[in-house]
Each structure stands twice: as structure tokens, then as C-alpha cells.
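Lab meeting tomorrow. Look over both lines:
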Amino acid sequence: MIKSVRPAEEIMADLIEGMERTLKDSANMYD
């Protein structure tokens, strides 16, 4: 784990946002 001064909530939000973007990109491949 990388130590960070950012709050866990902000890190989790970034992870979720990245996952959603990845899912959208995957869905676009099947259009």
C-alpha cells in the first residue's frame, strides 16, 4: 500500500470512478 496524505474517502472515490470508467469502456466495445 502506498502511504498517502489523502483521506481514505477520496481514495475510494477515485477507485470507484476509475472502475466505472473501465466498465463504460468495456461496454462500449460491445456496441
